[in-house]
Amino acid sequence: MGDLFAPTHLIWILLIVILLFGAKKIPDLAKGIGEGIKEFKKASKDVEKEADAPKIAEKKPDSEKKEG
Questions:
Q1: What does the alpha-carbon distance between residue 42 and residue 48 come to, in Å, rounded to a whole number?
Q2: How far is CA 41 from CA 38, 53, 64, in A?
Q3: Which domain holds residue 30?
Q4: Are 57 and 65 in contact (CB under 8 A)?
């Protein structure tokens, strides 16, 4: 039981996916997965920005804090 993702295993997985979803639905499935990953990355960047916002405000000099 060597590699988990040996070439023969990947071929079997691909064949099973084609049988389950059909060749016509695979591009739609891949597009949906890609959009989901894009949304997840965007949301994680937004969370990082919100978490870093107080740190950035602390680094500004006092004169900039009063103005903005």
A1: 10
A2: 5, 18, 31
A3: 23-67
A4: yes
Paired tokens of 45? 């960047």
Give the total number of structural domains in the chain: 1
pLDDT at residue 43, as a whole number: 94
pLDDT one-digit tens code per residue, 25-66: 888 888 999 999 999 999 999 988 888 777 766 776 655 555
Q: What value does the mean pLDDT of the chain take? A: 81
Contact 31/38 with Cβ under 8 angstroms?
no
The answer to whether position 57 is within a domain reads yes
User: CA angle, 32 as apex, 31 and 34 as ends, to 5°?
Assistant: 65
